[in-house]
Design brief:
5 helices; 0% strand
Length: 125
């Protein structure tokens, strides 16, 4: 268990640092109010996780590499890629209602939770 945590943590650290660097680079060359860096990172992260999922379907013995790259790196780079992959998995399993519910809760309730957190902080301050 400790070994797995180390693989996930190392991949997550690398993904987070790359996310920060990529975001800074995109914001430098494409400044503006639209969150282009986050959008680009999320889309590219989805592509990366798709490639890795396809690769690891054939590599059954690569458990630690999967933890490092998919759970750690992609999770640190963008959790949106995991969200997209989980929804695709639900859809491929024929669980369309569950996928739609997951999408709705994640997007709408997630935005509402951010707003609630901001509101709660302002009330306390």
């Amino acid at each position: 268990m400790v070994k797995e945590i180390l693989f996930v943590g190392a991949g997550g650290a690398l993904g987070s640092v790359l996310r920060y660097g990529t975001g800074q680079l995109i914001d430098t060359y494409f400044p503006g109010r639209f969150p282009l860096a986050t959008l680009g990172i999320n889309i590219f992260g989805c592509f990366i996780i798709g490639v890795l999922m396809a690769y690891f379907l054939e590599q059954q013995q690569a458990h630690h590499a999967r933890l490092f790259l998919i759970t750690g790196f992609c999770g640190g780079y963008t959790t949106f890629s995991a969200f997209a992959a989980e929804n695709l998995d639900l859809i491929q399993q024929g669980q369309l209602i569950s996928a739609m519910f997951y999408i709705f809760l994640s997007v709408i309730v997630g935005i509402a939770a951010v707003w609630a957190g901001l509101f709660a902080f302002r009330l306390m301050g």
